[in-house]
Amino acid sequence: MRRMLLGLLVITGLSLPLVPQATAQNGAKAMAKPAVRGRLPAYYGKIVDDAQKARIYKIQAEYSAKLDALKAELDSLTEKRDNEVRAVLTAAQQRKLEELKAAAKKNREAAKDKQIDQAAN
Fold first, then answer.
1. Considering all CA atoms of the chain, what is the largest pairwise distance in Å, rounded to the nearest integer?
2. I need a surface site. Which of 1, 33, 62, 98 has the fewest CB within 10 A?
């Protein structure tokens, strides 16, 4: 949700104010870091300074909306492809496919429950 809002702000050309928000714990004290943050790639946190972090977060925000649009397009194409592939099957094959999927799901759930039981013991 946060990523989508940030993406919308980037698309519309708006920016979030970097004014810290007060919380119940710190009262009216301002927070030292900006409220808007991204996620640094692995190991970057150990080598970059605050200015570089801000630049990285800005770059990530610029690409976020574009990547989200591409992911949505990929999901749509994948669904369309899967529907066309399924249409090749006969009605009987489609029923059998659903049975196989249901059995596989049941087996996964049983294996998951078994792992949980083993971890509890």
1. 67
2. 1
